[in-house]
Design goal:
globular
Length: 111
């Protein structure tokens, strides 16, 4: 019952958030997912690790798809490059089981 209430609250929080807050929420979600993926890797819960990584990649993809290149100009192009870099870095980190590389993305997202 409590979980349902929290989900409703969270959904309302997302719907009523301004665009800047939504971007911050996306960054926080990606950070959480990457940290969870690392924890699941150590726990040898590889399916859960993969789901967490996919969630982080989905968030980055949503951020990229929301960019407005006409209004955003150079900033939008730079963000697109950054989101692409993070995506590739996460994929390579997962492929090579390089958790330090994943930590680098987390550090950049937190910054």
């Amino acid at each position: 019952m409590v979980g349902v209430g929290f989900q409703s609250y969270r959904r309302t929080d997302v719907i009523t958030a301004d665009p800047k807050k939504l971007v911050i929420m996306c960054y926080e979600g990606a950070i959480h997912s990457l940290k969870l993926a690392k924890a699941k890797y150590y726990a040898r819960e590889y399916e859960s690790k993969a789901k967490a990584i996919q969630n982080a990649l989905d968030i980055l993809n949503e951020l990229r798809s929301a960019l407005d290149f006409e209004k955003g100009g150079e900033i939008a192009r730079n963000l697109d490059s950054l989101y692409g870099f993070w995506t590739q870095h996460i994929l390579k980190a997962d492929q090579h089981q390089d958790l330090k590389a994943m930590d680098q993305v987390v550090a950049m997202l937190e910054e």
